Hints:
The chain is of the alpha/beta class. It folds into 4 domains: 6-197, 3-Layer(aba) Sandwich (Rossmann fold), CATH 3.40.50; 221-327, TPP-binding domain (Rossmann fold), CATH 3.40.50; 353-427, 434 Repressor (Amino-terminal Domain) (Orthogonal Bundle), CATH 1.10.260; 447-539, Jelly Rolls. The protein has 16 helices and 24 strands. The protein has helices spanning 15-35, 64-74, 92-106, 117-130, 221-224, 238-251, 259-263, 294-297, 317-320, 329-354, 363-366, 368-378, 383-390, 394-401, 409-418, 429-447, and strands at 6-10, 39-45, 78-83, 110-114, 133-135, 140-144, 147-154, 159-164, 172-176, 192-197, 227-231, 254-257, 284-288, 305-310, 323-326, 450-454, 464-471, 481-482, 487-494, 497-501, 504-508, 513-517, 522-526, 532-539. The strands form 5 sheets. The protein has a 7-stranded parallel beta sheet, with helices on both faces. A 5-stranded parallel beta sheet has the order 12-11-13-14-15. Helix 10 runs antiparallel to helix 15 and helix 13 crosses helix 14. The longest helix has 26 residues, at 329-354. The chain is elongated, with a radius of gyration of 34 Å. It binds flavin-adenine dinucleotide. Flavin-adenine dinucleotide binds at residues 156, 232-234, 258-260, 272, 274-277, 289-291, 293, 295-296, 309-312, 315, 328-330.
Amino acid sequence: xxxxxxxxxxxxxxxxxxxxxxxxxxxxxxxxxxxxxxxxxxxxxxxxxxxxxxxxxxxxxxxxxxxxxxxxxxxxxxxxxxxxxxxxxxxxxxxxxxxxxxxxxxxxxxxxxxxxxxxxxxxxxxxxxxxxxxxxxxxxxxxxxxxxxxxxxxxxxxxxxxxxxxxxxxxxxxxxxxxxxxxxxxxxxxxxxxxxxxxxxxxxxxxxxxxxxxxxxxxxxxxxxxxxxxxxxxxxxxxxxxxxxxxxxxxxxxxxxxxxxxxxxxxxxxxxxxxxxxxxxxxxxxxxxxxxxxxxxxxxxxxxxxxxxxxxxxxxxxxxxxxxxxxxxxxxxxxxxxxxxxxxxxxxxxxxxxxxxxxxxxxxxxxxxxxxxxxxxxxxxxxxxxxxxxxxxxxxxxxxxxxxxxxxxxxxxxxxxxxxxxxxxxxxxxxxxxxxxxxxxxxxxxxxxxxxxxxxxxxxxxxxxxxxxxxxxxxxxxxxxxxxxxxxxxxxxxxxxxxxxxxxxxxxxxxxxxxxxxxxxxxxxxxxxxxxxxxxxxxxx
Length: 541
Ligand SMILES: Cc1cc2nc3c(=O)[nH]c(=O)nc-3n(C[C@H](O)[C@H](O)[C@H](O)COP(=O)(O)OP(=O)(O)OC[C@H]3O[C@@H](n4cnc5c(N)ncnc54)[C@H](O)[C@@H]3O)c2cc1C
């Protein structure tokens, strides 16, 4: 007897949920190949042309027709589109009934649902209505000895339990995380699409949909974040956890935590992710030093891509990760941080360079403020700290972060320096060359005010050297700052010499001299209307 089909349920609530559903379809196709059966997909929604209402706006979901075509191309043998005007608003209780009725009619073998709150609820109600089996959080759907085995984390993720269907239970609902597979790029399978217009829908008693809409952004930064970086016990202490903050800041994301960092007060409780914390649905989730207990992974399963870093290759987190890195998080995170900060500064530089003067008034749209704030907060710096580190005023930083002005390129370079990021690593080759040329030009303009004669030509490498320096008459040039080992002696022959020693100003008249430690930065300038001539003697060790 040939085996019944595997079905997968397509969640069309958002583009992200639909991508997750396609990944689950890919997983089902792999299992079907091993089991010698086919996969069909079930899509539920309103028929085309259903008018939108306050509680059911079909345009808020992924379009049924396009989704069906995509699923058929990926490899679903049949895509069943179950439609009725009352199905415009996704409701787990209603969809589960529709799905269960169809399961009872057609009797598939397994029904895969993407692992998220909606999938969990639909699977539980559907399994109860069909009196079918239910396998939750199946990280690895396998065939073993001709039998379906759902490998699922158990005991806080400490073990992986192999769950099978008891004899006499031919059907099971299975929730499957969408990780670890890729959606084919240009799929070209020729699945069939069958639309079934349902004549009658029995609305469940006791519940009615009052309103439907997106939740307000306020207070939901973590749950709504597109990027989340989670730190766990493996980071060791508050300082180690700081690496997670830095990476989140550099990636423009939010910080999350497992229970131990919260219990140790490395981070606020509102950052807890998991069964007793928040559920996140980012496009990218980086999880560092987290073993992958089910109570934690329950809160991250709807993430689009999970990158896990753990030094234990057998940590359960690798079962749910799309990309797993076995290694020391305290070594890897600083490297990732450096790259992420470079690319954040690059984005800032690109956005700044792309602005024309007239666009600068539109700087708020460029979002500079958010990038600067994230980079600053990632370091736990106040606005005053950043102002101090970049030589700006706190008001300048406040205005920048409020998107009231766009940053000059010099500020970006100053920020890179303050963050100890070599600008050479995020500036393009031609930009580096332009900066080098500008510096050389400036140096040339500043030094051309000087000329000197070496009085000890044979002593280029000796300890004692003497020069006759002529500095052009008072000019509007920035004096060059010198700094070298040893001692320096200056005797003024003609004109007035302005000497800045570190921050202290000296004026020397003809016949006057000074002797100082040349380790101290010093600048020379003529203060006369005539050129100033001096004898300079250098003693180096
Ligand atoms: C009823 C109940 C509800 C719970 N709810 C939640 C919840 O909502 N959220 C939650 O998070 N937990 C929850 N827990 C706790 C949960 O069971 C785990 O104990 C917790 O998630 C473990 O956190 P962890 O992964 O950070 O720590 P651990 O399990 O201790 O894992 C630390 C990991 O770090 C790795 N590591 C160590 N050093 C390094 C290094 N230098 N570099 C890289 N990797 C390293 C280790 O190999 C290990 O895998 C709950 C527990 C119960 C009983």
